[in-house]
Amino acid sequence: MKDCQDGYIKLALPKGRFISPTASLLAEIGLGFQDYSDKTKQYRLHSTVFPRLAAKILQEKDISIQVAVGNYDLGICGLDWIEELLVKYPAGALVKISSLNYGEGSIHVVTSTQAGITSLNELSDGRNDYRIVSEYPNLAEAFALNLRMRRFRIFPVWGAAEAYPPENADLAVIWGKNGADMATKGLIPLKRLIPVTASLVANRESLENKDLSQILTCFSSKFTAEPQTSIENGLDISEKPKGSLPSWQPKEINMALPDGHQQVPTSQFLKHAGLALQGYSEEGMSRRPSADLDWLGIKVIRPQDIPLQVANSNFDLAITGVDWLREHLYRFPSSPVKKLFVLGFGAVKVVAAVSQEMPVADIHELRALIQSNKFAPLKVASEYINIADKYLRDNHINPYKLIPTWGASEAFLPEDADMLIDNVQTGKTLEQHKLKIVDVFFQSSACLIANKNSLASPDKKEKIGFLTQKLRGGLK
Amino acid sequence: MENQKCKGMRDLLPEDMLRFRHIEDVFRTCCRNWGYKEVRTPTLEFLHLFTATGTLTPSMLSKVYSFLDWDGWSGERVVLRPDGTIPVARLYIDNLTGQELARLFYVTNIFAFEGTGKENRERWQCGAEFFGGDKLVPDVEIILLAEEVIRRLGISSVGLQLSHAGLVKALLKMLKLSRMEESKITNRILEGDWQALTRVKAANPEIQRVMTTLLSLKGKSSSFLHNLRASFPKASQDFKSSLEDLISITTLLDSLGCSYKIDIAAIHGFEYYTGICFQFLAAGEKIGGGGRYDNLVPLMNGEDIPACGFALYVDPIMKLLPPEEGKRVESEILVRGKELTSEIVGTCFAVAESLRDAGHTAELDFTDRKESSCRWVIMVSGKEPSLFMLTDCVQGRRRDAASMAEILKVVGEG
Question: Which domains does chain B have, with CATH numbers?
Answer without folding.
Answer: 14-324 (3.30.930.10), 330-413 (3.40.50.800)
